[in-house]
Write a structure and sequence with these properties.
The chain is mainly β and 196 residues long. Helix content is 7%, strand content 30%. It comes from Micromonospora palomenae.
Length: 196
Amino acid sequence: MSPGFQGRRRSSGPALPPGQYLTEDFPVLSAGPTPRVPLDTWEFVLTTETGTEFRWTWDEMAGLPQESPTVDIHCVTHWTKLGTSWQGVSLDTLLEGVDTTARFALAHSYGGYTTNLPLDDLRGGRAWVVHTYEGGPLPAEHGGPARLLVPHLYFWKSAKWVRGIRLLVDDHPGFWETAGYHDYGDPWREQRYAGD
């Protein structure tokens, strides 16, 4: 070994899911027009598999215990943004006291968008309905006034403009899933499209 030879430098950067690159930006990706939902008409409805509904207005949601997760987000289009800061209500809080035997959930958004998730992925401190991003109101182009945040899955599962969740006994694919995206969407297993 030659004096001073130290071999190749290893990257000291963060571990990223396969196929992802880091971005400092927050790209805007939408399948249609951006809904503009006035706060005085916004509501979130949790519907059980039996049709029982739990409703929260904007003010009622704001009155619930708030959490401030800082998480990495991973888009199916290959970008990853590290250390994003949010504020909102944990799905654990919204599901507290809800009597259900459901195993799945279908998130519904203003504008008609839907996405499916296993109910277990919305529990255990892993999912929120968020209204604040980096200390300010969540902009409409990023899903405001409120979006679902499920950071351990690809970001399309964090439905923008969320207005409710229906609990289901059986899994039902949502908008992107019926268009060929993976049913689950784990970025660490690179589950981008059906069959991955």
